[in-house]
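Is this the right way to post structure tokens for a design question? Let me know if I should format differently. Anyway, here goes:
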């Protein structure tokens, strides 16, 4: 079955410990709903740098990643359907979905 990389962008970072618990519960419920399609639940990511041939950018580009995950799905439409339930959407973020290519 094809695998899809979900790259999370944006989203509000929780400030209080109670908010962290609530958000983690939402992510856990989403992963439980997806079940065995979760290949690698991923993690949030810190600040990024973009490496070019002649320079280095410290800002991560116009839409820096805030996290990632790897999921299996029958096709792009099925992967998009999974992404539509992602908790980051409720936090003001978005999900970029790309099929991985086995080489």
């Amino acid at each position: 079955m094809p695998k899809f990389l979900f790259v999370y962008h944006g989203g509000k970072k929780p400030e209080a410990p109670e908010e962290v618990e609530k958000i983690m519960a939402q992510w856990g419920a989403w992963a439980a709903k997806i079940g065995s399609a979760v290949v690698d639940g991923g993690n949030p990511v810190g600040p990024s740098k973009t490496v070019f041939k002649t320079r280095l950018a410290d800002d991560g580009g116009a839409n820096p990643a805030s996290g990632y995950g790897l999921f299996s799905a029958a096709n792009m439409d099925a992967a998009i359907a999974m992404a539509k339930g992602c908790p980051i959407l409720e936090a003001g973020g978005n999900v970029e979905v790309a099929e991985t290519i086995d080489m």
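Format looks fine. Someone answered above. Worth noting: The mean pLDDT is 93. The domain at 3-45+64-99 is CATH 3.30.70.1060 (Alpha-Beta Plaits).
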